[in-house]
Design goal:
This protein is mostly beta strands and 491 residues long. It has one helix and 39 strands.
């Protein structure tokens, strides 16, 4: 173990804040910024693990701390001449923030060659407690790791690491004491180019060890749960029902509802590198599916679920999030959508978030102890900003913000409807939790050319084959009299 004396940890009041409201915040630093995890600490503050890159793909990491009133401070983790990327963090009962990351020479840009990892601890005021670094195993680099802390304070990092000898990936585990000193490491004998790891899954209360979701172990194409004990030994458990054809994909989240049932959310992945729809399902303690999943994605598009896409503090307020995966340089306006469900998998409300000429890409969410939820997304103004200038958009919502009509909420960029694809062809999908919904299409002369009453299911399909190619305006209204308008293009 070696320690960098040249590490810079910079505390600053956010001069980079572009706008601040009671429910939303935009972080703009003229380069790229994103967030991959949010946690609520023991004081009710929101802690975000963020990364920043410039036009030359030099990376540094930022821990962002947001108070309930959205006052914000942050700490930058920066090593001169190195790229620094924080991959995961946890918060202990004393409100210390333990952060795991990796670093490598910044001369390699986006590709990177990360052969060192670090674990550091910040107190609740973002002061450094310790910062310790370690080399990864010889002939390996670029680990993708998650962090877990056990009840006795021991820290575990688990994920996959690239093998230079075999040109594929292996599982890699590290165990630390609460001071960040390594106790043990382990590298799996199994290796495969198709091996990918996702999020940590906590075991049932009182059961030692933890779980890690993976794809591609033992040369299978579907998702598995790896159970890791305190000595870093592991077993592999198959999850999905092969007869249903689920493969699953990017962004797996899971959390226990009670001692015998947990919720599992992901994206169906019917073909390599094609991520379809966000869904959530109940699983029993033996990791078997219970009943049918709830699909909340958009059927004709590729939906990404973010790093953390499902969370709850109360089982009647379960939050989900995902976004449509159009290219960031496309003129298509990406929006992200959120849903609130209960433990019976009933949809209680949905919202679509976005604005004209902007791409929104949801990355993480965190349910909060006051019953609300905080969401993080990237935001890119593709008309007025260069491609590399991506902002961080942070949104705090309460249940009423999701179940109330968008016309009555204080937000200006929320909608009660996901209407897609846009541009589209002969079928238009509309997703909403509203009832008694009617949509009308107008041509450029203001004449109604199509009028349809939606069914009361979550997803409705409108046949638009009778419309000619061109620009249309629509008005969509519910039985309460609230309405929204927009534009739709028929290819």
């Amino acid at each position: 173990m070696k320690k960098f004396g040249s590490l810079f940890l910079i505390l600053f009041v956010p001069a980079i804040i572009l706008s601040q409201k009671s429910q939303e915040l935009i972080i703009d630093n003229d380069v790229g910024i994103g967030c991959n995890k949010i946690l609520e600490d023991n004081n009710g503050d929101y802690i975000l693990n963020c990364g920043v890159s410039d036009t030359n793909w030099h990376f540094k990491s930022i821990i962002l701390k947001i108070a309930p009133d959205f006052d914000t401070i942050s700490k930058t983790i920066y090593v001169p001449e190195y790229n620094v990327r924080t991959s995961n963090f946890v918060i202990d009962e004393n409100n210390n923030y333990f952060i795991f990351g990796l670093y490598g020479p910044d001369s390699l840009g986006l590709a990177g060659d990360y052969k060192q990892v670090f674990i550091c601890c910040l107190d609740e005021n973002l002061n450094e407690v310790f910062f310790k670094t370690y080399n990864v195993p010889k002939h390996h680099h670029n680990p993708i790791m998650r962090l877990y802390q056990s009840d006795n304070g021991e820290l575990y990092s688990a994920g996959n690491i690239y093998s230079e000898n075999t040109n594929d990936r292996r599982l890699y585990f590290m165990k630390f004491n609460e001071n960040g000193d390594t106790i043990k490491t382990a590298l799996s004998a199994f290796h495969s180019v198709s091996l990918w790891t996702f999020n940590i899954f906590e075991n049932k209360e009182g059961e030692p060890g933890f779980g890690l979701f993976v794809n591609g172990h033992s040369y299978v194409s579907h998702t598995q749960l790896i159970k890791i004990d305190t000595n870093l030994n592991y077993t592999v458990i198959d999850l999905n029902d092969i007869s249903q054809g689920y493969v699953f994909g990017y962004g797996i989240s899971a959390k226990w509802l009670d001692d015998s049932v947990y919720l599992f959310s992901s994206c169906d992945d019917p073909a390599p590198n094609v991520y379809k729809d966000l869904f959530v399902s109940k699983m029993d303690a033996d990791n078997n599916f219970i009943g049918e999943p709830l699909w909340v994605g958009r059927p004709d598009t590729n939906d990404f679920a973010g790093f953390y896409n499902m969370d709850f503090k109360f089982t009647d307020k379960i939050y989900l999030g995902a976004y449509n995966s159009q290219g960031i340089s496309s003129s298509y306006e990406n929006r992200f959508f959120i849903a609130m469900i209960d433990d019976g998998l009933n949809v209680k409300g949905t919202k679509s978030i976005g604005m004209p000429n902007n791409h929104f890409r949801f990355t993480a969410l965190c349910a909060t102890s006051d019953g609300g939820c905080i969401f993080a997304s990237t935001k890119h103004d593709f008309v007025n900003s260069p491609e590399y200038d991506v902002d961080l958009y942070i949104l705090k919502l309460f249940p009423d913000d999701i179940t109330t009509s968008a016309a009555e909420t204080p937000l200006e960029i929320d909608s009660d409807y996901n209407i897609f694809p846009n541009p589209g062809n002969d079928e238009l999908y509309i997703q909403t939790s509203n009832k008694g919904v009617k949509i009308q299409f107008f041509n450029e002369q203001g004449i109604v050319v199509l009028s349809e009453q939606l069914n009361d299911s979550y997803t409705s399909i409108i046949n638009t084959s009778g419309l000619s190619s061109g620009l249309y305006f629509y008005r969509i209204s519910d039985k309460r009299g609230f309405s929204e308008t927009g534009k739709w293009i028929k290819k």
